[in-house]
Amino acid sequence: MEVAYRELTLGIAALFNDPVSGRGGLPALDRLLHLGQYALGVPGMALSELHTTGGAGRVIAATGTADWALGRPVQPEVVTAVLRPGPTTYRVELGAVDDEASDQMSSLGSRWILLHRIDLVGRPPALLGAFMPDDRPADADQLAVMALLGATVGRLYSERAGLPVQSTGDDLADRELFIAVTSHELRTPVTVIKGYADTLRDHWSQLDDKARREAARVIGQRSDELARLVDRLLAASTDTAVGTLSPGPFDLVEALRHAATNLPADLRRRFRLELPERLPLAYGDRATIPNVLTELATNADKYSAREETVVLSAGNDRRTVYFQILDRGIGIAPEQAHQVFERFWQADSGDGRRYGGAGLGLYLVRKTIERQNGWVSLRPRDGGGTVAEVRLPRGDVKRDAHASGEA
């Protein structure tokens, strides 16, 4: 541990001199967790940022065997169970977290969690967890590593270096942004529809049949876009956001194949399916899969060059079934990976934005999936581009749990 601890201190010093991670935010957290994982000799680490209200949180950084949890909500009852007064570093048994997460961590070789509470001035604490591979208690060197990692994270928060990554929940700002976004995004389709309608009205006799059909096609296309945008705005302005769900076990592979056939024609041409023949059943609302896939695929299409392929893949682990949308587009900055799921968030703002959108699609995807006890995350793809991942509980596991009275 002595050598690893020395390398950790040198790694932290190098972190602050790096032009990317030195600015803080998620790149710094990700690098810190990799350094800590190596220094501690553990299979995985994760950091959860707690909300300012509600006593809940979200996993915002994860490495090793914990990477499956990236983006996963941390429920208030879990926060209550693991937060303790007194020493900032302490042991937490897997049973203190929810059953699904406990089972998943256990299947990946974890026996307990070495938790460090990072107390932040003016904010709820953040929680740093190392997933320990055996039952031996933490030694003095391991406690020192956790303390150093926690102090470094605390410094990044105190300097507001790209943190917190989650929304502050400013209702007034949300209302002002709602007005700005809707006025900007509604203007374009309305202007196009009016322009083509005026052309048909004023120049009908001068247009040939091909021109009339093209004008009607554009009006129909833009009307569909407008209707979809209005639906998003109405959904995002309510607490429920996604309406009533009807969860149950379903075949995710079949649902994805069917949903892919209904994607817009231009997108289908660049869409490649790399799906397995079968997966364990997922547990959720099958009817939401087409909308979720369309939003994520459209997002990948929007930020990718026309010649690049967008890939749809899927898989499973012990507790979840998941699918991924992989593109070779402009990518996602690590510090923006969680912000993109906030309501009305845009990577580029103002009238000079290169990419359209109201900043609602990914927000509604997150709300839809989380109401099914799943979660969604975005991360940079190795070699360039973005990976969007959606995870849902396994349907066979959930049914077994209900049958045994554990759920």
TrEMBL record:
<keyword id="KW-0597">Phosphoprotein</keyword>
<keyword id="KW-0418">Kinase</keyword>
<dbReference type="Pfam" id="PF02518">
    <property type="entry name" value="HATPase_c"/>
</dbReference>
<dbReference type="InterPro" id="IPR005467">
    <property type="entry name" value="His_kinase_dom"/>
</dbReference>
<keyword id="KW-0902">Two-component regulatory system</keyword>
<dbReference type="InterPro" id="IPR036097">
    <property type="entry name" value="HisK_dim/P_sf"/>
</dbReference>
<dbReference type="GO" id="GO:0016301">
    <property type="term" value="F:kinase activity"/>
</dbReference>
<protein>
    <recommendedName>
        <fullName>histidine kinase</fullName>
        <ecNumber>2.7.13.3</ecNumber>
    </recommendedName>
</protein>
<dbReference type="InterPro" id="IPR036890">
    <property type="entry name" value="HATPase_C_sf"/>
</dbReference>
<dbReference type="InterPro" id="IPR003594">
    <property type="entry name" value="HATPase_dom"/>
</dbReference>
<keyword id="KW-0808">Transferase</keyword>
<dbReference type="InterPro" id="IPR003661">
    <property type="entry name" value="HisK_dim/P_dom"/>
</dbReference>
<dbReference type="InterPro" id="IPR050736">
    <property type="entry name" value="Sensor_HK_Regulatory"/>
</dbReference>
<dbReference type="InterPro" id="IPR004358">
    <property type="entry name" value="Sig_transdc_His_kin-like_C"/>
</dbReference>
<dbReference type="Pfam" id="PF00512">
    <property type="entry name" value="HisKA"/>
</dbReference>
<feature type="domain" description="Histidine kinase">
    <location>
        <begin position="181"/>
        <end position="396"/>
    </location>
</feature>
